[in-house]
């Protein structure tokens, strides 16, 4: 069986990421949300260009995605953070470490940027399992969100011992046309795909399925 790899999103992934966004909303909302397709497409493309979208890929299919977008606390405008407008793992690939790996890489991006990571999983029938998952892996509950303190100039507190594959000094890819030439900027994940390890924790803290990524 093919390995699951974690990698930066490419522009060619945009439609798969859009589908993941819609599926995550269908799973967690009791109403149908109509999107302005051109806006959603442009928004996802911009996040990919910024290097803040990570995908899990297996057998050439996108099976999970986390997308990050900068925000600020209403009561603390000077403190920026990365929030997750998208965090989704396909049902057939849950409980196999995919979500944990996506969150690890999201923490790496936030840490390299010197801002905190705030994840929102306060929705859906399995919200309590998701919340427990984030608590186990270091999330601090603030309202319905979970804060991972990364520190830095804009963070609430420095937490230097983040154990992820990160290269904070990695240069941005501007190309000859500069930042607007349509090429994605390189984010802090090291070159090469990240392969899930058999001993990684499952998505919600249940028994790991070592066969899933074999």
**Which class in CATH terms?**
Alpha Beta
The total tally of domains equals 1
Poorly predicted ranges (pLDDT <50, ≥5 residues)?
152-214
DSSP, total strands: 8
Write out key terms for the chains shown.
alpha+beta; eight-stranded mixed beta sheet; 214 residues; disordered C terminus; Aminopeptidase
Structure description:
- This protein has four helices and eight strands, in the order βααβββαβαβββ.
- The protein has 214 residues and is of the alpha+beta class.
- A hairpin with a 2-residue loop joins strand 6 and strand 7.
- Helix 1 packs across helix 2.
- The longest helix has 16 residues, at 98-113.
Question: SSE layout and pairings?
Answer:
Blueprint: E1 5-8, H1 14-28, H2 37-50, E2 53-58, E3 61-73, E4 76-89, H3 98-113, E5 116-120, H4 127-136, E6 140-142, E7 145-148, E8 194-195
Parallel strand pairs: 4-5
Antiparallel strand pairs: 1-2, 1-8, 2-3, 3-4, 5-7, 6-7
Helix pairs in contact: 1-2
Question: What would you say about this model in short?
Answer:
Helix content is 26%, strand content 24%. It has 4 helices and 8 strands. The termini are close together.
